[in-house]
């Protein structure tokens, strides 16, 4: 284990996410369900924005993984993730998602709570990079925050999301700070716009997997 990282760091990081996203664990279970139904063997898997490596740990626990590559822009996060996923089948790589070098290498690409940090032009670049990394018939599964279709709906959804965070242990000030990041630190598009972008980037099949509060899971196939 690396000296600059501890189990507490990762546990605290995941705990904070669960206080912000009600069905955080469910997102990973949705991925498991889809990949299991497809009955893939010797899977090559790319996880972008891997954070603490939760997707890698989940994949290894459930599937026959031939190779898994976990990408994150933060080296410290990669080191922490590596401490909790010490497996020769997993490679942790520091890389900006917009600069992914892979071409037709992976059966599965996942991105959990990543795409909404990119404005539209960069989001297109990210989606195309993930598309290019997939083999033919490969699947791309992502979960992200989405924009409601109206100002009234946005106000309602944001208040509901704030109340959820307060009910799960955040102070009102903490919850307010998170909600204030809307449109400033994360850049949301509607679900219909996400589907449109995926199709424009070349995916032949796009389906909604799951929706909760202001989070959506979408499945696309190359």
Q: Can you tell me about this structure?
A:
This protein has 222 residues and is α/β, with parallel strands linked by helices. The protein has eight helices and seven strands; from the N terminus they run ααβαβαββαβαααββ. It has helices at 7-20, 24-38, 54-62, 75-83, 120-133, 151-167, 172-179, 191-200; strands at residues 43-48, 65-72, 90-94, 106-112, 134-145, 205-212, 215-221. It starts with 6 loop residues before the first helix and ends with a strand.
Shape field: globular
What is the topology, as strand order, of the major beta sheet? 3-2-1-4-5-7-6
The profile of the biggest β sheet is:
7 strands, mixed
Assembly state: single chain
Q: Give the distance, in angstroms, between the N- and C-terminal Cα atoms.
A: 38 Å
User: Element order, helices and strands?
Assistant: HHEHEHEEHEHHHEE
Which range best describes the helical content: under 10%, 10-25%, 25-40%, 40-55%, 55-70% or over 70%? 40-55%
Our Rg estimate from Cα atoms comes to 17 Å
Record keyword descriptors for this entry.
single chain; 222 residues; alpha/beta; 7-stranded mixed β-sheet; 8 helices; 24% strand; globular; disordered N terminus
